[in-house]
Amino acid sequence: MSTLQHVCSAPLARAVRSRARALSISSAVSTSSPAKQASSVDSRVLLGLSEQELQKLATDFGQQSYRGKQLHHLLYKTKAKDIQDFSHLPQAFRDGLQEAGWRVGRSPVHRVVASADGTVKILLMLEDGRLIETVGIPVEHQKGSFRLTACVSSQVGCPLRCAFCATGKGGYSRNLQPHEIVEQVLAIEEIFKHRVTNVVFMGMGEPMLNLKSVLDAHRCLNKDIEIGQRMMTISTVGVPNTIRKLASHKLQSTLAISLHAPNQELREKIVPSAKAYPLDALMADCQDYFHETGRRVSYEYTLLAGVNDGVEHAAELAAMLHGFCRGSHVNLIPFNPIEGSEFRRPYKKAVLAFAAALESRKVTVSVRQTRGLDASAACGQLRNEFQKKPLQLSTPARELGPLLT
Ligand code: SAH
Predict the structure, then answer these.
(1) Which fold has domain 109-375?
(2) Active-site residue among 8, 127, 133, 190?
(3) Most-buried pick from 80, 165, 353, 369 (CB within 10 A)?
(4) How far is the CA of 220 from the centre of ligand 1 (A)?
(5) Where in the chain are all domains bearing CATH 3.20.20.70?
(6) Whole-prediction pTM value?
(7) Ligand 1 pocket by C-beta < 6 Å: which residues?
(8) What GO cellular component is one of the record's annotations (predicted)?
(9) What are the pLDDT digits (tens) for 148-171?
């Protein structure tokens, strides 16, 4: 029996039901006016605001500041989705907020796909008709503890086009706003009927290209939704000048670097954006990050059969890491096949040999269990299934309409 079925069979049933009655796209698109596209973002969204900001908002509307506290509770504890559901607040205040154009900022769920191992992938339809993926990954430990990890997207698509990644192949549209990141966590909590314990910024997009929103969302997830900073991981392929910026915030979250190769030449083939950020410079920034924050950086390494998965690559990787820092941790991810890709998943034997070669050189290593293979699990795959046309900056929602069905 899958973990999800075991832990929360009702949510799974609901997930499957909502799959069957997924929203009609044409109606969803027809209600989103072109005026509300990404470029003309409406900032009157409650989700993502701090308690102080909500108190200020309440007093701006002639209410006492404790109404702001109530708003905070309704958004982050009750998790109400609509201003008219704020039944603790005076009707006049609710109407006033709505008339002024305020909204909660929760998007409709477009599709939910549950895999046999309990992983649930959710597609949210944003106000401008664009789709983003978010994934809920439940892990039940033998001792009875239960962890629910949210893998969140930071952009609609991704401009970086790493060779093996489905998101990059689908194109890039825009950055997500803070509330569009936060709501992914709330959508997962709603489906699982359980609080999210961990957040990884490993969904669609490159978090460091949208650092301001990622930091705002991180603040909200930590302070308002009360997910510990140490329970969150920000994953990046590396964007020049951003790791130092992140370090200056001295977060207690983990920085994960998507490395995928032990040298610059091979890395450029797998990660085209690496040309603009040589491995030496990236590793030096990681070293500084550790000194500044005291938090060890972890390294993600997607294993591609016959490309970067030889024991000689492991030996080179260990030497490279030891050259920069003591005690690095490497997370190995066997390639998750995507449509039309020339890459292959390595055999288990090769994965274990790679891990052993790192361990014997005193590099700690974990092998990420592939979750939800049957639910289009690789980053961006599900979105690509439903939003076939590659995203472009200028694609308006009304043009996407017929492509989404
Ligand atoms: N842009 C960020 C976050 C998104 S990708 C980054 O690169 O870190 C998050 C992780 O998923 C990366 O480590 C990436 O290598 C991995 N990933 C993406 N597609 C994959 C696939 N098809 N198989 C295995 N890992 C994949």
Answers:
(1) TIM Barrel (3.20.20)
(2) 133
(3) 165
(4) 24
(5) 109-375
(6) 0.85
(7) 164-165, 202, 206, 235-237, 258, 300, 302, 333, 335-336, 338, 378-379
(8) cytoplasm
(9) 999 999 999 999 989 999 888 888
